[in-house]
């Protein structure tokens, strides 16, 4: 069964879309309705949502800001935008930000439902059709990499080259005059098994086939960033991501948020379509092609942290600035690793205790404060607290709400406002889901309900 989230500040539009979706026969179990981006994020953090449909113009957090937050927190979630804006440039911007489709109000219902069905079924169809035979047909590659691969690997491995030297080789390899900023990702494939049946991959030919299939998946996943993909000897692939001045200017202050999202996209797509376990190491962003060697070292060092974090799969180099020990798996290294993790977690928890009531709190806000990527923050919470960041925020908010209900005469809407919720109805719904009773029942009982 599938679940859809509809976001619009006009409740009659939400209800109309909800009715249309439930009557469409798409196997939709739940259609949740949110009146702004804040409420939408709460649903996305608490429920399994397969598709989001959102308006653009809303009070508080609008659709564009919501789309940006979704890109960071749920990068694989398909989003359909509905809007009163008819300008083509506006639609282009929304689609550039990752929306799958764009409809102008009043929407054409048959076309709208066609799009809904397409994006609800997209993941299922892709997985179902990715059989061993179709893999071979779709991703067939020569056994040997193209000649420029060897030249580019030399660039990555050779220190001390000037920008002019690297640029000359780059151009001779027929690569575009891109940049001037670059980031490197290094993907390590566990080529012991793969394909729709997860069969053993033993021959060199099959291993090469899957490696070049992975390169093709990467190219498709990152096509709008114009990546340069360099297969390495063995089971690794290097990705050079160029950024022009405008693109570099759009990167957040802490670029690990955006880069981590791209790394997760690569990791997820290789796992989904090829059934190959993999990990991704990500460098920082540096100026000039002469930095490729340093970026290669950074991405390799980031990937080395998998030794200490085997249950993690995406590693951004600057997340490990505070980790003084090398990721060598030694007892000393493990002890130092644990101490730093504990310290970072305490820092994040302290920030959340002071700021959990902030409306529209986003992972990026937390990450900017503690200078970590959103991916690493999520890992720390999953690993050591056995909960998500948003489970923890909800816990703080609900505990504070219960305390206010039992110790003050504040009205429901005042409590909702105090703990970061725009609508008292939304607060009541979350409160009842968390405690099993409504705010009024808690207050009437006059005593705490067991957790």
UniProtKB/TrEMBL annotation:
Domain Response regulatory: 3-120
Modified residues (4-aspartylphosphate): 55
Cited InterPro entries: CheY-like_superfamily, Homeodomain-like_sf, HTH_AraC, Sig_transdc_resp-reg_receiver, Tscrpt_reg_AraC-type_HTH
Molecular function as annotated in GO: DNA-binding transcription factor activity; sequence-specific DNA binding
Gene3D superfamilies noted in UniProt: 3.40.50.2300, Homeodomain-like
GO terms classed as biological process: phosphorelay signal transduction system
Location of the HTH araC/xylS-type domain: 346-445
Keywords (A to Z) from UniProt: DNA-binding, Phosphoprotein, Transcription, Transcription regulation
Domain of life of the source: Bacteria
UniProt xrefs under SMART domains: HTH_ARAC (SM00342), REC (SM00448)
PANTHER family: ARAC-FAMILY TRANSCRIPTIONAL REGULATOR, HTH-TYPE TRANSCRIPTIONAL REGULATOR EXSA
Protein name per UniProt: Response regulator
Originating organism: Cohnella candidum
Lineage, opening ranks: Bacteria, Bacillati, Bacillota, Bacilli, Bacillales
């Amino acid at each position: 069964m599938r679940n859809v989230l509809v976001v619009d500040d006009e409740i009659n539009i939400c209800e109309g879309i909800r009715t249309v979706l439930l009557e469409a026969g798409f196997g939709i179990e739940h259609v949740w309705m949110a009146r702004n981006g804040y409420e939408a994020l709460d649903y996305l953090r608490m429920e399994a949502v397969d598709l989001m449909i959102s308006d653009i113009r809303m009070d508080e957090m609008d659709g564009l800001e919501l789309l940006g937050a979704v890109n960071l927190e749920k990068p694989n979630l398909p989003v359909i935008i509905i809007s009163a804006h008819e300008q083509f440039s506006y639609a282009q911007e929304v689609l550039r930000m990752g929306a799958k489709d764009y409809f102008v109000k009043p929407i054409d219902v048959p076309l709208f439902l066609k799009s809904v069905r397409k994006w609800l079924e997209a993941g299922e169809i892709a997985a179902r059709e990715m059989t061993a035979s179709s893999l071979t047909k779709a991703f067939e590659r020569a056994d040997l990499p193209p000649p420029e691969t060897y030249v580019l690997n030399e660039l990555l491995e050779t220190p001390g080259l000037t920008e002019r030297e690297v640029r000359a080789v780059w151009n001779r390899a027929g690569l575009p005059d891109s940049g001037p900023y670059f980031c490197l990702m290094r993907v390590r494939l566990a080529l012991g098994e793969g394909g729709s049946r997860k069969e053993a991959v033993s021959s060199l030919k099959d291993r090469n086939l899957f490696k070049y299939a992975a390169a093709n998946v990467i190219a498709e996943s990152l096509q709008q960033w114009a990546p340069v993909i360099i297969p390495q000897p063995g089971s690794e692939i290097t990705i050079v991501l160029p950024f022009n001045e405008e693109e570099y200017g759009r990167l957040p202050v802490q670029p690990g948020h955006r880069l981590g999202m791209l790394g997760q996209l690569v990791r997820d797509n290789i796992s989904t379509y090829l059934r190959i376990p993999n990990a991704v190491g990500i460098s920082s962003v540096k100026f000039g092609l002469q930095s490729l060697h340093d970026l290669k070292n950074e991405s390799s060092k980031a990937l080395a942290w998998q030794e200490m974090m085997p249950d993690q799969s995406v590693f951004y180099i600057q997340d490990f600035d505070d980790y003084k020990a090398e990721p060598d798996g030694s007892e000393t290294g493990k002890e130092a690793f644990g101490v730093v993790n504990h310290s970072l977690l305490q820092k994040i928890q302290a920030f959340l205790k002071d700021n959990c009531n902030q409306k529209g709190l986003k992972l990026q806000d937390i990450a900017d404060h503690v200078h970590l990527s959103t991916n690493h923050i999520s890992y720390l919470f999953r690993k050591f607290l056995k909960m998500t960041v948003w489970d923890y925020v909800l816990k703080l908010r609900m505990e504070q709400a219960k305390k206010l209900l039992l110790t003050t005469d504040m009205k429901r809407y005042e409590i909702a406002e105090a703990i970061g919720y725009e609508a008292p109805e939304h607060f009541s719904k979350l409160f009842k889901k968390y405690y099993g009773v409504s705010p009024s029942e808690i207050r009437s009982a006059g005593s705490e309900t067991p957790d």
